Amino acid sequence: MNTSKSFCLGILVMTLCSSFIEGKVSSQTTSIIQQTTQQDPEDNDIYLYVENPPKFPGGSTALANFINRNLKYPQKALENFTQGKVSVSFVVKKDGSISDIKVIKKVKDGLSEEAVRIIKAMPKWKPAVHHGLIVNAKYVLPIDFKLNLS
């Protein structure tokens, strides 16, 4: 066994023992346990930070092209000259499908709804990999809505 891994595992075991002796397990310890022992492919944990994040098929250029091809500027936003950046979070699941879509930075006049529509229309992504395992991962995508006013 690698010395650094056994040292870290020893610290983890000591932390767990002291936590159980005190009759509680902190959320940080629970998180360490989940990350250290996650081997079950049925696991539904959602990771915020991963070694290899999820990727749109074809990469970031293909993602930008997909958004540009599919974006339909809402009529109300056109009439009001509304522009802005909508940030949307979602989970890329182990099978590459997208779930849990949430707007975290809204823009009025239908732009937020259009960003969600585009996310829902996306094909399956290449899922995230963390410590050699395919995992569910949260992803935040900003979509910039700009009008060509010239």
From TrEMBL:
Residues 58-150 form the TonB C-terminal domain. The keyword Iron-sulfur does not apply. One of its GO terms (cellular component) is plasma membrane protein complex. GO terms for biological process: protein transport; transmembrane transport. Pfam families: TonB_C. InterPro entries: TonB-dependent_transducer (IPR051045), TonB/TolA_C (IPR006260), TonB_C (IPR037682). Keywords: Cell inner membrane, Cell membrane, Membrane, Protein transport, Transmembrane, Transmembrane helix, Transport. It is found in: Cell inner membrane. It comes from the Bacteria. Coiled coil: none annotated. Gene3D superfamilies: 3.30.1150.10. It is a single-pass membrane protein. The keyword Calcium does not apply. One of its GO terms (molecular function) is energy transducer activity. Transmembrane segments: none annotated. PANTHER family: PROTEIN TONB, PROTEIN TONB-RELATED. Belongs to the TonB family. This is Energy transducer TonB.
